[in-house]
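Field log, afternoon session.

UNIT: design team B
ACTIVITY: writing a sequence onto a fixed backbone
BACKBONE:
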């Protein structure tokens, strides 16, 4: 009974609704369409308002970022550190250029003035370090080159103002007195102005600005050198037609240039046959520069290849100078013999028979005047890039056979170093065993550290986390190197094993805290940890960065940039320096990302740096992130 009383009103309500619906069917259906259009219109209005708010917020942020940079530029003009002054002013100018060109141009000029002073001081310190090492080792040295501040200012200015960058280059030419020093250049090397020009052009090319890169590079592409041929190889990767056209012009001018010699031909051959491998012969042996692990011949047209053979032959078949009349700095008779010997297989494969016969006759003529040692040379420098390399196992066994025949510990040391480097380049742990066989304890420790660092880089680049983590446990790595390996492995593992990645980051943070509080490596390591948290556990980035800021305030000499992982050893048999830029140790990347997340919080964090250097680096990174012309306001639905 109770249930019937509850149902009856519901039934009456349904019946009434049905009557109302029936009564409305005869009326025009105008209300429904209005209801359908009202919701989209309201949504569009809401979206437009949200977009307007986002754009207004972005305009406000950009105004704030501009004010940050203007204030910092005032401070930067008084920085005592000329390197910091030059970099800060140049980067501020670069960031402000789109919104204040006159201010940007002024700041670039101020930056150049500071860069001149900074580079002079760096050159002086470098020469002092080289001399100290020569005194200690009896002539050998291994140094890391300091940053080239004028190159950095040039690169940034060239993005915006070609006339201004040409002005800077003219100043550089005057300061370096290139014309007076040209005869002192090493074979294959361009003078300072042309080298700087091509360095900036390569950076513009790598950044994707081909038009400006070519405008800047053009004056230097009329001279044959390692830098100019290397630029053409880079250009060919992006525009083969443009590169081949300029190379053809260089072939033509070289053939008629009386200064061209055998090394000119050797460098020109690299563009076609051994891109990024350059071999130059001097009276002291062979100098090589290899800028790529794999040497792959360029696929050029038969016409361009024949043009090379014609130009090369016209240079190589020139009459020999009289004894004592050889031009200083050229390949000379000995160098010409080795270049002809090295390149003859290419001529035999592709050139016309008459050119091949002429070169063979020239080689025979040279054979009668060169030294016995030169005549018998058949080493890797002569054959690299021409003949297929022997299998790694054969080369390794040949060195081991020489170890058995070695008569002195110094000779064995050099062979074990070669064996260790060869194995490390292949990522083989036995490289550590070879290093361990070096008898001199000091050299052994240096080489062991060098090899372990090389293996760590190899494993991380190949994403081989197990052997990389094994090196952290038993390898001779610094605290900073261990942090780098742990954080890189954490990022590699994060997509599939977040727990393991988090564990590795905890270990990295613990390893970082073992570094002395006054050591700039401590904040660098903590920055790397914060950077990895972006991938592994984003909410923890802020706390990790805050810890790095606190550490930076206690570290002496921490700049927030120029972080390197340097592998180095010196011995009587030679030396090696392998320098790796590590962006994860620098402030720029982390503060750019933090600015995208929370601008105000990032600014406050940057203000926490007590030193001028890291505060400037962080502030500029934040402002650049906001002023990026590609950035657009986005609205989250």
């Amino acid at each position: 009974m109770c249930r019937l009383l509850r149902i009856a009103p519901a039934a009456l309500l349904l019946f009434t609704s049905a009557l109302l619906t029936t009564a409305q069917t005869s009326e025009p259906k105008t209300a429904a369409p209005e209801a359908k259009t009202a919701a989209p219109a309201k949504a569009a209005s809401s979206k437009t308002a949200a977009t307007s708010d986002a754009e207004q917020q972005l305009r406000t942020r950009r105004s704030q970022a501009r004010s940050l940079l203007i204030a910092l530029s005032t401070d930067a003009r008084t920085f005592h550190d000329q390197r910091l002054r030059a970099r800060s002013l140049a980067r501020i100018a670069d960031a402000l250029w789109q919104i204040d060109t006159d201010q940007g141009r002024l700041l670039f000029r101020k930056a150049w003035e500071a860069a001149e002073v900074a580079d002079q001081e760096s050159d002086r310190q470098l020469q002092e370090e080289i001399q100290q090492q020569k005194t200690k080792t009896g002539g050998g040295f291994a140094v890391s080159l300091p940053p080239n501040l004028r190159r950095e200012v040039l690169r940034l200015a060239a993005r915006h103002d070609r006339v201004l960058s040409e002005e800077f280059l003219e100043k550089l030419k005057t300061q370096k007195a290139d014309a007076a020093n040209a005869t002192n250049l090493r074979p294959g090397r361009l003078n300072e102005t042309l080298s700087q020009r091509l360095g900036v052009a390569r950076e513009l090319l790598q950044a994707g600005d081909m038009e400006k890169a070519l405008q800047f590079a053009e004056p230097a592409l009329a001279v044959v050198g390692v830098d100019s041929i290397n630029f053409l190889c880079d250009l060919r990767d992006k525009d083969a037609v443009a590169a081949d056209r300029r190379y053809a012009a260089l072939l033509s001018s070289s053939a008629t240039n009386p200064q061209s010699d055998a090394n000119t031909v050797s460098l020109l051959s690299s563009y076609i046959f051994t891109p990024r491998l350059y071999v130059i012969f001097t009276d002291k042996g062979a100098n090589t520069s290899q800028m790529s692990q794999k040497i792959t011949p360029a696929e050029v047209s038969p016409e361009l290849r024949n043009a090379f053979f014609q130009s090369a032959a016209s240079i190589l078949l020139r009459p020999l100078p009289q004894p004592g009349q050889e031009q200083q700095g050229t390949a000379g008779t000995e160098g010409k013999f080795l270049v002809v010997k090295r390149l003859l297989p290419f001529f035999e494969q592709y050139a016309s028979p008459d050119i091949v016969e002429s070169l063979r006759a020239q080689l025979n003529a040279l054979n009668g005047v060169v030294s016995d040692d030169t005549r018998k040379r058949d080493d890797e420098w002569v054959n690299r890039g021409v003949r297929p390399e022997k299998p790694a196992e054969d080369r390794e066994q040949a060195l081991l056979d020489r170890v058995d025949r070695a008569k002195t510990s110094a000779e064995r040391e050099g062979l074990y170093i070669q064996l260790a480097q060869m194995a490390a380049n292949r990522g083989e742990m036995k490289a550590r065993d070879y290093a361990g066989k070096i008898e001199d304890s000091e050299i052994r420790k240096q080489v062991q550290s060098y090899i372990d660092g090389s293996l760590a880089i190899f494993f991380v680049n190949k994403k081989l986390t197990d052997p990389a983590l094994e090196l952290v446990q038993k390898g001779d790595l610094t605290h900073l190197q261990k942090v780098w390996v742990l954080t890189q492995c954490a990022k590699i593992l994060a997509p599939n094993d977040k727990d393991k990645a988090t564990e590795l980051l905890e270990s990295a943070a613990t390893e970082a805290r073992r570094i002395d509080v006054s050591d700039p490596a401590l904040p660098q390591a903590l920055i790397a940890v914060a950077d990895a948290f972006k991938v592994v556990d984003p909410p923890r980035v802020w706390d990790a960065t805050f810890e790095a800021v606190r550490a930076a305030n206690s570290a002496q000499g921490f700049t927030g940039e120029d972080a390197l992982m340097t592998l180095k050893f010196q011995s009587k048999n030679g030396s090696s320096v392998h320098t790796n830029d590590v962006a994860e140790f620098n402030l720029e990347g982390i503060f750019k990302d933090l600015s995208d997340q929370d601008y105000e919080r990032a600014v406050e964090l940057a203000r926490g740096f007590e030193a001028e250097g890291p505060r400037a680096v962080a502030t500029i990174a934040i402002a650049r992130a906001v002023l990026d012309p590609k950035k657009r306001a986005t609205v989250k639905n």
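LOG NOTE: The two ends are 52 Å apart (CA to CA).
NEXT ACTIVITY: expression trials, pending approval
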